[in-house]
Amino acid sequence: MPTVLIIDDNAAVTIALEVLFSLHDIASLRAASPEEGLEVLGREHVDLVIQDMNFTLETTSGEEGVALFREIRKRHPDLPVILLTAWTHLDAAVELIKAGAADYLSKPWQDERLLTTVTNLIELGQANRALNQRLQRERKAKRELEQNFDLRGLVWQDPATERVLTLACQVARADVPVLITGPNGTGKERIAEIIQANSQVADGPFVVLNCGALPSELIEAELFGADAGAYTGASKAREGKFEAADGGTLFLDEIGNLPLAGQMKLLRVLETGRFERLGSNRERQVKVRVISATNADLGAMIRAGTFREDLFYRLNVIELRLPPLAARPGDILPLALSFLRGKTLHPAAQAALLAHTWPGNVRELKNVMARASLLAQGDIIKAPDLGLPLAAAAVQSGDAEPDRDAIVQALARAGGVVSQASTELGLSRQALYRRMERLGIARPT
Hints:
Helicase, Ruva Protein, domain 3
């Protein structure tokens, strides 16, 4: 049950508020003086404070209330405070609202308005606490991953990426094949590099073969090598990727493009570590960790008879599903900033980036930022510089402010340092504080 602290020397006011709140499942605590109120706040959990502005008999200046408010704000900067007084001083009200007061109400109050304000502020405070707790958990998890594992300089912020990275690092030292699935351009090769960097063969070679970039008749020769004369144009013996990766990791991208004959030979290598070059009868032995990746539906290919089911299960001991960029929006702005060189993003450009669907994923984002860096006039990249569809680029005008998600993500990247976040967002620190107040974003502690 939420709890409200009422700081007022008028017992009739306190009792009336307690009755009103009790009828709406809100608990109340009372204090008759500023000193008592601060003492209660020091030992009890309180969701909201309602405070009077005058406590000394026949005093109407409001100075006592101002001092109390500022002390509460100093000790509990995120706690919402409603100011309540029979003596309304407009100038004082405006100044305290600017200083962070949640509302300023006159006595006698309207029950309905007061209840609406209290309920909204309590719900907002609970949401802020939940958000701050989530951000703290995410920052802690990110720090632990970065401290304990070699992430190859990967830029990321979204919890969905964190889950993939956590599993990748967890299975990295296990000598089992890993299948990375996800759309093109999502960074599957980077995940494979991270697995290699944290594996037991981290000092070994990391060899890449894109099975979709070669004609089907050449893929086997690339994988297993070929003796001279094994096929037209093979004038001399050549080493295959398996031999090159001996003692390390072989990353097979677009594994769904491997022809059936190659699939059969790959299955044998995975099971025995043995293979022959094309045109050779001499068996060779290797020790290779295989990581494969695909954007294809291998299940559908199995049903169509174009991919071996036994190979699928051999490759798919561990599957890592890398979501499309649009499904991990927390990564968009950190990645965009990492692709820039000495330039910043205007808030409207940030909104356009977040609104775009990114069908080409990280690869598309990198190209967009490279283009914008070349075309932007000055050090600030604006929405039109991105060259995105109008529907995305016109989400906000050039004078618009960043939305809640953009502010929360900027604060998270800045570790809660408001001045750093305000610079990234293109706002003054005071403007960012005002925007946070309006959106109900708690000030970092």
